[in-house]
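ingest -> validate -> predict -> emit
validate: passed (alphabet ok, no gaps, 388 aa)
predict: started
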Amino acid sequence: MRNRWGILAILFVVRLTIAFQFQSVAAVAPLLQQSFGVGLADIGILIGLYFTPGIVLALPGGAIGRTLGDKPTTIVALLLMTAGSLVMATTDVWGWQMAGRLASGAGGVLLTVQLTKMGTDWFAGKEIATAMAIFVNSWPAGVAISLLVLPAIGTAYGAGAVFLVAGALTAIGIVLIIFYQSPPGATASAAGSRLLDPLALLAVIVAGAIWGLYNIGFAMIFSFGPSLLVERGWSIAAAGSAISLVMWLSVISVPSGGYLADRTKRPFVVAIAASLVVAALLAWLTRSDAVIAILVLGGLIGGLPAGPIMSLAARVLAPETRAVGMGVFYTLFYAAMMLGPAVAGRLAKSAGTAAVALDLGALTVLACPPLMWLFERIVSVRHRRARS
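emit:
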């Protein structure tokens, strides 16, 4: 296939499998608690384990892809994801559940890094912003589909069936990626040889922290939101369907945020305003019965900061430092996404309710605006020094 939009469609669906698999645990968390006799703290750890390999693999992920090639790397990643799901589907030992989750996460990390590179190869200089907005939307789409489908499957057939479905989807991804072709004239990009200057490194660290903290807050909705609603008497299927509203509406709000930021030329205003509203909605959700209204607002507003935040690192990274810089960025993101659910689960266990996890999410989102200000200060100082 040589049509770049057809290629993007393939990459979209393949990347969607990562979000679908990630959400498979949270979508049936109450069933796992019953089946394995574990608490919310254990569920939080299992959710966060998916991102643990990213701390190790994010930096060398690009080099692995250059060594093996695009297709072999993505196929290996998808095989790891499939194997992890199969382990989780067939074991009744909690330790093996954790091992399967780690294997799946390792595949997900490799796939994330490689698919981003493949999409950039096809769209560099050609509608790159539009393409990346569509590409990023595969995550909320995958989570939303899982929230609609997996609770019903879990209720009817058990948690093992849920992981089998996730494994089947990643296996379909292997078939799809076979149709991928590199763009005409593409050559393997050389590894960046220059090191980041101290201020650029600091800026990228802050940018990665912002992206990680914002995603912790947003992830609390679909990771612990279903458990919160089940505590209030909702069925597992109804809770999953309700929470999926956030993700479906995010499919609209993510590209809208990028367009709004570009149109107004005020990306920080968009990101800061939306972050403050999202923090308020997270806190409100645990204290109100207006669940559907809050979730709709969360979906419409929650995706707006994604584009502005994702563009931060590019402001301080030259082409020759982009590989190492994005490795640092994603390492911070994966570290945050590993620790966030684990801490939230521990707090939820201590408090006896999933509500505290969403309150933690509100605090992490609230931390983003001050860090955005710090990022701007670092960039300003760096620019002044470059001119002097």
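The radius of gyration is 20 Å.
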